[in-house]
User: Fold peptidylprolyl isomerase from Takifugu rubripes.
Amino acid sequence: MIKSVQWVLFLSVLVAFAACNAPPVPLDDISIEKTFVPEQCVRAVKVGDYVRYHYIGTFPDGKKFDSSYDRGSTYNVYVGKKQLIEGMDKALVGMCVNERSLVKIPPQLAYGKKGYGDLIPPDSILHFDVLLLDVWNPEDGVQIKTYHTPSVCTRKVEVSDYVRYHYNGTLLDGTLFDSSHTRMRTYDTYVGIGWLIAGMDQGLLGMCVGERRFITMPPSLGYGENGDGEHHDTYLIDIPGQASLVFDVVLLDLHNPRDGITVTNQIVPDSCTRKSVSGDFIRYHYNGSLLDGTFFDSSYSRNHTYDTYVGLGYVIAGMDQGLIGICVGEKRTITIPPHLAYGEEGTGSKIPGSAVLVFDVHIIDFHNPSDITEITVTKKAEDCEKKTKKGDFVKYHYNASLMDGTAIDSTYNYGKTYNIVLGANQVVPGMETGLMDMCVGEKRHLIIPPHLAYGERGVTGEVPGSAVLVFDVELISVEEGLPEGYMFIWNEDVSPDLFSEMDKDNNKLVEPSEFTDYIMRQVNEGKGRLAPGFDPYRIIDNMFFNQDRNGDGKITEAEFKLKADESASHDEL
Ligand SMILES: *[C@@H]1O[C@H](CO)[C@@H](O)[C@H](O)[C@H]1NC(C)=O
Ligand SMILES: *[C@@H]1O[C@H](CO)[C@@H](O)[C@H](O)[C@H]1NC(C)=O
Ligand SMILES: *[C@@H]1O[C@H](CO)[C@@H](O)[C@H](O)[C@H]1NC(C)=O
Ligand SMILES: *[C@@H]1O[C@H](CO)[C@@H](O)[C@H](O)[C@H]1NC(C)=O
Ligand SMILES: [Ca+2]
Ligand SMILES: [Ca+2]
Assistant:
């Protein structure tokens, strides 16, 4: 054990002796040992390039005479322009960024016989441990390398456009100096009008939303000779002087302040007789997304249409415009620049400032508060003697749906007609109108606005609020009503002896049963008529009640006369 240690020591002394005393091995030329070669070399240094590099200068014995690290900044210089010792000018050519080499330079390619002041003795061989960090050429412009192209690109960035993008900014050696991600928001700016460093102003032009590219620029188009230390609070590191910059950019949004809305992907139904105008009330479904496809909201998620007036400022300006001139059933994509949407502020957590919004809309229905029931006769009656009027008792079939075709109800489901007295508020006002002046056998198509149907509230589970209704009706039968205000009329002259005819048991009182029997008999014999469509017994009870002035359940002859003399009410005999 001991022996071998001595052996090692002895050897090392020998080597040291040789290094000190033997004359240096004469070098004709520089020698380069590459100690690190990066996987990729985008560009090798050429004569005339400008480089930034770190180095440690030592003598062959290891003694350090200089180091850029000690000065805390890279050495920046043109290559091949005799600004460096000849050996260095040679050694740097062909180097790649991030490459590290040990360069040995003989004195004739360094400081020669003279040496350099006190620092470099005459005839010194110099060793430089060099790490190349940056290379550019004064001829360089912006270099753009797109590495992801979106499948659709309807528009490319032009001068004076406003863009939102994410980026990572690195130096050429990969050192990250800034990223929009660290601020967790996009970088939002005008392009091409000097809001950005020149390299970005140029490098963003022609970009599509969704595109990803590397934008590489020389310092003249970046932060120049002095770099940038002013953004200390936002940047991860200061940008050194004379540094090339590489921005990895993904474009998320793009518009021009002069933009209006755009309408695309229109699918207009074949039959469109009416287009929305300002002041209409629209019910529609929508999917909302940002320009890069990020979804932010949908009416479908609420299972409810979005309902609003259009053109009156109830919605964002772009939507107010985009919903004009639209048909029921139409689908369209409305793209809205931020100044017609939520502006520079954005809204909520999902719509960033200056965001362009894309709405895919589907119009379910619309109406105007001044609309009346729209009646279209779809089948005329063969012969029509009488047309329906107020008070008539009508029987009809209907199929009801919403404007988008959703079925709501149909009499065919119940296998029987729907029966009403017209004008008696038994159906919604729009339906009353729709069934007037109609002939038996006639068919009509009715479009009823919500204010003449179920209003803003609708019918839970059946009719949505503010829905326009569509009815196809067929009139099956009509029973003519009595003149307005009458519930019973005589077809013939009234018997002069009415009271005694009613008072069957002759006790000088008309009891309810006597009254009812009598009226029903007149109706059955065709001498009198009750208003159709109502419960006859309720009408008769009502008549009795009117006649029985003192409310004792019996009508006396005096009560009978008194009532007959008045003739103010119609429900009398
Ligand atoms: C920037 O870096 C982040 C985080 O490493 C990465 O998710 C993103 O894709 C990079 N590129 C861009 C253009 O944001
Ligand atoms: C919407 O309707 C679907 C299916 O009927 C249901 O699963 C969902 O919970 C509803 N969403 C809301 C917000 O009501
Ligand atoms: C909204 O998105 C849903 C789900 O992708 C889709 O079914 C619906 O048709 C879309 N609506 C419109 C108006 O584009
Ligand atoms: C209602 O729909 C049924 C079945 O589609 C049809 O046979 C009938 O004619 C329709 N009625 C009206 C009044 O349109
Ligand atoms: Ca009696
Ligand atoms: Ca009485």
About this structure: Confidence is low (pLDDT under 50) at residues 1-23. The first strand starts at residue 31 and ends at 36. The first helix runs from residue 2 to 21. DSSP finds ten helices and 28 strands in the chain.
